[in-house]
Every structure is written in structure tokens, then in C-alpha cells.
Amino acid sequence: MSPQTAQAAFLIALGVVFLAVAIWMFMRANRRTKVIRDEGAAKDVLDEGASPAARNQALIDAPAAVARDVGQTSTNANSDAIAAATASADAEAGAAVTPTTAPPPAPAPAPTGEADDLKKIKGVGPKLVTMLKEQGITTYAQIAAWSDADVARIDETLGRFKGRIERDQWVEQAKLLAAGDEAGFTEKFGRDG
Question: pTM of the predicted model, to two decimals?
Fold first, then answer.
């Protein structure tokens, strides 16, 4: 081995040893220290087996500031009184909300006879009955006569119920109900309409 190679090997070995010592010192300096307490000293709330802090336990035991009544809120939101609110009312609170930028619906022709029970159409509940009534739609015959353009126009006014007309096949249901074909309606769409 030449003297230059031996000197280089020595310097490399020295560098590796120096690097190992530096890493060991760095790791030792960053190690967490263990706190040793006197046997007679009071326990801290963070010590293992210590009782919870009084302040935290008081917060845990305190009654809720606001009671949540989700069940009744849901019941109220689905009541006929809320359903009869205008289309711009919020279902949960009944407060007015800003309407979307959808074009205003064209008024449907006024029905000549008595209004039908639109809730018989699957997918139409009290809120949708109210929204349809605001647009002058109160009979099965009106819905049965809708064209694709009418469906698209009215669907734009339904807000969060958008897409229900086609998904629930309102026009087909209305055609059967307008014709008085209860048996055909029940066969195709089931009971409880």
C-alpha cells in the first residue's frame, strides 16, 4: 500500500469515528430526561395513577351550555307548518334565505277543477307540494302534461330537491293517477302513494 493511500485510509477512519461521536453526543443531548420525585412530595396530575385535576373534572361534570334537541328539530322541520312556508324559507329554522339565481318559473295554467293530493306521487312530500302549489301546479293532469322542457324548467326551481322529477318518475306516476288507474299505479309504483 502506498504511503498516500495509507494516509487517506487513516483520515477516512478518523472522520468516521469523529462522525459517530458527534451523532452519539447529539442523540444524548436530545434524550428526554426523567424527573425523579421525593417519595413524600405531592403527586402531580400528570403522574401515573394521579387523580384528575379538579378544574378538568369540574368542566367534565358541568351541564351542557346548550341542549341539543335534534329529534324535535327534525320533527319540526318536517311538519306541515314548515312545509307550507315559502320556497325561500329554511326548513330547520323557517328563516328566509337568499334564493338562487334560477330564472323565475313560468306560471302553470290554472287548474279548472279541484286540487289533487300530490303527496300520492312517490317522492312528493309536504314541502314539494307547497313548492309546486306556489307555481300553480295542483293537479295530476298538469304534471302528466309536462314536456321535457317543462320538467327542466320546474326542476330548476326545486332547490335541494332538484332531480327528483325524473328520478322518481313524477310524470309517469301523474299520468296513471290522472287517468284514475289505481291498479296500474300500484302495480308499477307500489302502495302507499
Answer: 0.44
